[in-house]
Amino acid sequence: MLKNKTYNRKKIVTIFFVCFVIFLVLGGRLVYLMVFQSDYYTEKAKELHERERSIKAARGRILDANGTVIADNKTVCTISVIHNQIKEPDKIVQVLSKELDLSEEYVQKRVEKYSSIEKIKSNVDKEKGDAIRAYNLEGVKVDEDYKRYYPYDSLASKVLGFTGGDNQGIIGLEVKYEEYLRGKDGMILTMTDARGVELDAAGEERIEPVPGNDLYISLDMNIQSYATQLAKQVMETKEAERVSILVMNPQNGEIMAMADVPEFNLNDPYTLPETAAGEGLTEEKKQELLNAMWRNGCISDTYEPGSTFKIVTAAAGLEGGVVTTEDQFSCPGYIMVEDRRIRCHKTTGHGAENFVQATMNSCKPVFMEFI
Ligand SMILES: [Zn+2]
């Protein structure tokens, strides 16, 4: 009997001790999670409960010398789903895949994904967005946002450049003046409970977006249009691969037109011309062709001045009184400079000509003679 009692007490002490150790371990773990890992879990919970939706800032416009808008914004929509608020997942999959032209599997995967908010498609036309909003589906959010729009399609494409998926500048002025054009996105913060239902008491915190600055440039779209037409004509008659025309204001160096044909459509910058587009193109090759298509030869390529430099020689000659417009010259088709015989482009010679005619003929011997 006595032995049995001792045995029981021993058993109780052992059990108590085991329990004590277990609680000690659990307590320790709790302290670890609540005190030392608190930041990590607060952040996790916040991510799940606080739903952030950004309000896109309107990007600054680009205007030409006459104040004509040449890069503008158009309202587009971003369609997202909120997993916890979805009541009719099958209907949502069906409606969104039909309206947005997406495969049902693609939409289904996103509808079923457990996340606080899941983007289905961005850059959706406003009419489409309004149509989806009209279905009144719970858990489907339609947010309005801006997309870059170029009213002149391909005119001055290489100068203006275009923007990417996040409205950031990719090439041209769009990237050069990114910091001024960009603006600052705003934000809507909504608190929700664990099930994703929005809490009324917590309210909405709204940070207003700051629109970007407009950019005024010296380019004149009328002159640009003429220059482009002319360049296209020359490209055709000379069967050239590329033709560039640069028009500058001689008084202050302002660029009035910068055409570099073939240009590309700014509203569809990732489509290669039919001649280059092929089925079996690798990603790398395609990127290479796109870069070549976007390249602004007026800025990115070097050019041997050649005859265009005659303008500088003529201006210096006239200003220095070395030559007058009436001075008479004679071109035999070549000129000897030291021991070199340099030919005129017209090998039979231009004959007698005054300085104005020599300039019109782009006559080499005359320009070498009067220096
Ligand atoms: Zn000549």
Bound ions, cofactors and other small molecules, one mention each: zinc ion
Helix content: 25-40%
Biggest beta sheet attributes: 5 strands, mixed
Overall spatial form = elongated
Report the order of strands and helices: HHEEEHHEHEHHHEEEHEEHHHEEEEHH
Output the structural class. Answer: alpha+beta
Mean pLDDT: 88
CATH superfamily of the largest domain: Penicillin-binding protein 2a (Domain 2)
Low-confidence stretches: none
Judging by the overall fold, what is the CATH architecture of the largest domain? Alpha-Beta Complex
Distance between the termini: 133 Å
Strand element count: 14
Structure description:
- With 371 residues, this protein is of the alpha+beta class.
- 39% of the residues lie in helices and 22% in strands.
- The protein is built from 14 helices and 14 strands.
- The longest helix has 35 residues, at 2-36.
- Zinc ion binds at residues 331, 344, 346, 349-350, 361, 363, 365.
